[in-house]
Amino acid sequence: MKLKILFLCGILIFSGxxxxxxxxxxKKSENTLNELKQLLSDESLSSQSRYAxxxxxxxxxxxxxxxxxxxLFLTDWTENHPSDIYNAYWLYMIAMNYVKAxxxxxxxYYFERVLNNFSDLMMGGQSIHFSCLQNLINITKSxxxxxxxxxxxxxxxxxxxxxxxxxxxxxxxxxxxxxWDQALKSYELFLxxxxxxxxxxxxxxxxxxxxxxMVNFSKSQKDWTFESLEDLENAVKTAISRYDWRSxxxxxxxxxxxxxxxxxxxxxxxxxxxxxxxxxxxxxxxRYNEQLDESSTPTEAYxxxxxxxxxxxxxxxxxxxxxxxxDPEIHGNxxxxxxxxxxxx
Length: 345
Hints:
Blueprint: H1 2-40, H2 47-63, H3 67-80, H4 87-100, H5 104-117, E1 122-123, E2 126-127, H6 128-139, H7 143-156, H8 163-176, H9 180-192, H10 207-218, H11 229-241, H12 245-251, E3 258-261, H13 278-281, E4 287-288, E5 300-306, E6 314-321, E7 334-341
Parallel strand pairs: 3-7
Antiparallel strand pairs: 1-2, 4-5, 5-6, 6-7
């Protein structure tokens, strides 16, 4: 019984010590904050010293899990001290706090404030404006806004970015906005860059092929397209049945036509071929499936044919829907865009 009483007393004493530690810790934290604020009120502080104090107060709030208090403190400071040269950084801290909290519209508002109302600052060797633009590109839901941010990066921070990547991303955003002339111009600028054919861009695996197709197509006659997939399919089948190589050569797209294996890419150096079907029809017995391949989609279709060569007997003729909104008369038509050699993988 005595041992039990002693054990319970020990727990109470230990609990009292812990509560006392918590109280003392909280009091110490509060004292530290008060001391910092008192120091901040000293008007004789240099701008660098004032920056250090404000930064420590903000981080003190954040480390204590009081992000709302941090935002209120920094907001009040910037409003009451408009001449503080570090105000851009304080608002940037607020914006980053909202990014981490998942409050992206609020973060976007503060990043925009920094860009539009304050001169740029270099913090830790990094431009605040550059960081704002990078964050805005990631969080904005507006293509028109993203267009503005990409252009600003290109014009203001060309040394910090891949100009080549920026042009193709800019083109895609112009497409979303239906600004086709601007999209084509951006694709042309992309293709002019020395690394355009080799660059690897996350999320855009065939950037070079797409840009080349769009630009070359825009400059072509576009007289080889058919209004429907059925019209194109029937025309090609009729030409094969009649061994009419001249018609087949006429039906092929005159830009970006490819002839390659299934493992190759349209951007490969040997993917583009300029040959006549005459060389492969002469003396051969060409056949085709009555139906398009089952893997065909509303925008792409494959016709299996065979008998072209003793080396590669099977060819899949590749048809695709034309994606060229800048010309409504052509957009949505169908074209014979290429050939895949061999059985499908």
